[in-house]
Amino acid sequence: MKPDKKKLLEKAGFRVGSATELLNLSPEESTLVAMRLSLAGAVRERRANLGFSQSELARRLGSSQSRVAKIEAGESNVSFDLLVRAMLATGAKPREVGQAIAAGR
What we know:
Blueprint: H1 3-11, H2 19-23, H3 27-50, H4 54-61, H5 65-73, H6 80-89, H7 94-102
Helix pairs in contact: 3-6, 3-7, 4-5
């Protein structure tokens, strides 16, 4: 957040902080959330770069288009396993999956 915007919000009485502070997450929980979001973003980016629709990725996963939308949105009810499987369904190599996970640290 830009410093001037933060000052304006604080001046208006808002408390400004991170999601980690708001949710009182442990460092481990915060890292896991960041890793999940990084994987979700990588799935979305790879799918788009390959020109796949969400329906096509769903077919490759043996799932539904709405589930792929939830994967890409990083919803909390999507398992870490499914995030990794979605990456692999885009043709990602294990190293690329690891890089996407590591980007969230």
